[in-house]
Design brief:
251 residues, alpha+beta, N-terminal domain of MutM-like DNA repair proteins, Helicase, Ruva Protein, domain 3, 2 domains, 10 strands, elongated, multifunctional enzyme, hydrolase
Length: 251
């Protein structure tokens, strides 16, 4: 599943399509009124967390790439029908595959709180801290994946941030020292921008310290891996150097 930094990269790649007018639209999505799209100009192309947003005068097309979604710019996948395909009067096309496409009515500013997007200029660490303190008995492995708090953070960022901060994934938010809690919020954003830079340089995986790794680079012992928390997402951690704050029970 693409994480927030990957969606920001997509948004930057297609920036030149803003202002173009849709000439034709097709695809196998059941939710898109394709006949209403021709003649509509692209008002903006934006991202919110893991959502890619195509803003039109009528509504916004919200694209979520799920686990295996992909896109093509000015080209198509052979033998594969896109979920959504847009061709433009000024030339060029955008094609989206194996994704979820939904309509967002009304103003985007009303539909999304940009303060929750870790890569947005409007990101608010103060708001994130408040939300964390409002529900203090949750596990850190769950809250980092909560898109209402850390929109854009995915499983890779979760694993790497917790390792970077020496925090065990089964730690409870309420038991984290306040300094650690603030660092958690800070690193969720900082690592997301590092992720973006590494991905653009085609070297993302070489920077992973624990995600999909076998041994702890600090302790040189075997990492633990399991599906943890309410999210049951795959988690990698070191029992020696990642401290468990609170008692979340045994694995």
């Amino acid at each position: 599943m693409p994480e927030g930094p990957s969606i920001v990269i997509l948004t930057e790649l297609v920036r030149s399509f803003e202002g173009r007018t849709i000439a034709a639209a097709s695809g196998n999505s059941k939710t898109v009124p394709f006949d209403e799209l021709p003649g509509q100009p692209i008002l903006s192309l934006r991202s919110w967390g893991k959502h890619f947003l195509i803003e039109l005068p009528l509504f916004t097309l919200r694209i979520h790439f799920l686990m295996f979604g992909s896109y093509r710019i000015d080209e198509r996948k052979e033998g594969t029908t896109p979920r959504l395909s847009l061709q433009f009067e000024e030339g060029g096309e955008l094609n989206f595959y194996s994704c979820s496409v939904k309509l967002v009515p009304g103003e985007l500013e009303q539909a999304y709180d940009w303060r929750s997007d870790v890569m947005s200029e409007q990101w608010s660490p103060r708001l994130a801290l408040r939300k964390l303190r409002d529900d203090p008995e949750r596990l850190v492995c769950d809250v980092l994946l909560d898109q209402n708090i850390f929109s854009g953070v995915g499983n890779i960022i979760k694993n790497e941030v917790l390792f970077r901060l020496h925090i065990h994934p089964l730690s409870t938010v309420s038991k984290l020292p306040q300094g650690k809690l603030r660092e958690l919020v800070k690193q969720a954003r900082q690592y997301s921008f590092e992720f973006k830079a590494w991905k653009q340089a085609y070297e993302l995986k070489k920077h992973w310290l624990v995600h999909n790794r076998r041994d702890c680079p600090r302790c040189n012992i075997k990492l633990h891996r399991a599906h943890l928390g309410l999210t049951q997402r795959r988690t990698f951690w070191c029992e020696r150097c990642q401290k468990r704050y609170g008692d979340a029970g045994m694995l």
